[in-house]
Specification:
Blueprint lengths: L6 E6 L2 H13 L7 E6 L1 H9 L7 E3 L7 H11 L3 E5 L7 H11 L4 E4 L11 E2 L4 E2 L10 E4 L2 H9 L7 E3 L9 H5 L1 H7 L7 E6 L3 H4 L7 H14 L4 E6 L11 E2 L3 E6 L5 H7 L2 E4 L3 H8 L3 E4 L12 H4 L9 H9 L16 H10 L11
Parallel strand pairs: 1-2, 1-4, 2-3, 4-5, 5-8, 8-9, 10-11, 10-14, 11-13, 14-15
Antiparallel strand pairs: 6-7, 12-13
Helix pairs in contact: 1-2, 3-4, 7-10, 9-13
């Protein structure tokens, strides 16, 4: 184990957090620029357990047990030089537990944001729903975000501009498997070559109380109606959200079958196998777009203001508002007219590692 005070501790409790901190922990593993310990809990631990990759210094906390005592013990014993965690205000989750406890001990903290959606909910303390906001007990000393728009959002909420840094999204750094693994994943999923595979990534909009004027069930219903209007045979790969949604039954239609990847199916396997990727606002839509997949953003109703999907707000993908829109995209794939890249795509891990290396120059936290 790395000597006292030289360790960077990475933690996550949700799948999005894992996709951000895993590349960072991998880069800081023994033989890298510094020592690391990867601590995972809840859905992040389950998802990590399905991967073939294993890092040497990894701790999976038992599911169903409070994380507070384990976090306190780890931080007091190891006294890491830095704690890096997802930024999610779930009072029972590892992310907020690590950030809160580390700040109380004077250990520098770095939060890594994983998504453009539900930004305001990131500040909520689970239980009473009380918003903490920037400067609260678990707002980190530094917050790494995907782009300038997101940085501006947190600054408008009251965060110090010097504490919110645009780095990019680590999950976008290596997209080669999504292109290289298509034949293997299609064989694994037993997809015929003549079959058009359409991935639908569900998001628990209803469960989160996200007010878009529709929910994920309406979006899926619109997709299935559109597929039924098309010629040819389709396989719908429905990836149910692994945290808040329950099992979903497969469906059959005139020219399609819908398979459900319930639980913690690996998102990248579904992305790799898909010809077309559909959803509402998931970060996975951006990942698919950057990998060269055709993306359909589903909007069954009036326009969302502001729209939660950066592909729409940047004019890269026009949203489909009716089944006829979706059917047209399915039958005549449209090539995006905007740039096929985000400014920091491919460089986020390096950017965050540079931020980690500069921890000694951060100075005292706000109010500290």
């Amino acid at each position: 184990m790395t000597r006292h005070g030289e360790l960077t501790l990475f933690g996550a409790s949700r799948p999005g957090g894992l996709e951000c901190v895993l590349p960072l922990a991998r880069a800081c593993a023994p033989g890298g620029p510094c020592g690391s310990l990867l601590v995972l809990h809840s859905a992040a631990a389950e998802l990590y357990g399905q991967r073939s990759e294993r890092l040497a210094n990894t701790l999976l906390l038992p599911a169903g047990q409070p994380v507070g005592p384990a976090v306190a013990r780890l931080l007091n014993e190891l006294r890491p030089a830095l704690v890096v965690a997802g930024y999610l205000g779930d009072g029972k989750g590892l992310d907020v537990g690590l950030l809160t406890a580390a700040r109380s001990l004077g250990i520098p903290t770095l939060g890594v944001l994983d998504s453009w959606t539900n930004l305001d909910d990131r500040h909520l303390i689970a239980g009473d729903g009380r918003p903490e906001g920037p400067g609260g007990a678990f707002f980190p000393d530094m917050l790494a975000v995907m782009d300038e728009d997101t940085r501006g959002h947190f600054i408008r909420l009251g965060a110090s501009p010097s504490r919110v840094v645009v780095t990019g999204q680590p999950a976008f750094d290596d997209l080669s498997p999504l292109m290289a693994l298509r034949p293997a994943t299609r064989r694994m999923l037993k997809l015929e070559e003549s079959c058009v595979s359409v991935a639908f990534f569900s998001e628990p909009l209803r469960e989160l109380g996200t007010a878009l004027g529709f929910d994920q069930h309406a979006a899926l219903a619109m997709l299935l109606e559109a597929v039924g209007r098309c010629e040819g045979h389709f396989t719908i790969l429905h990836r149910v959200h692994p945290v808040l949604e329950g099992p979903t039954k497969p469906q059959q239609g005139r020219n399609y079958c819908m398979r459900c990847t319930n639980g913690l199916a690996l998102a990248d396997e579904v992305l790799a196998a898909a010809d077309i990727v559909c959803g509402v606002s998931s970060t996975l839509l951006v990942k698919a777009y950057l990998a060269g997949k055709q993306v359909i953003v589903l909007r069954p109703g009036a326009p969302c203001e502001p729209d939660p999907c950066p592909l729409v707000t940047r004019g890269l993908v026009a949203p489909a508002r009716t089944p006829a829109d979706v059917a047209r995209h399915l039958q005549s794939p449209l090539q995006p007219t905007g740039p096929r890249d985000f400014p920091h795509a491919g460089r986020a891990t390096a950017n965050i590692l540079a931020l980690i290396a500069s921890v000694r120059s951060w100075g005292p936290p706000p109010g500290g």
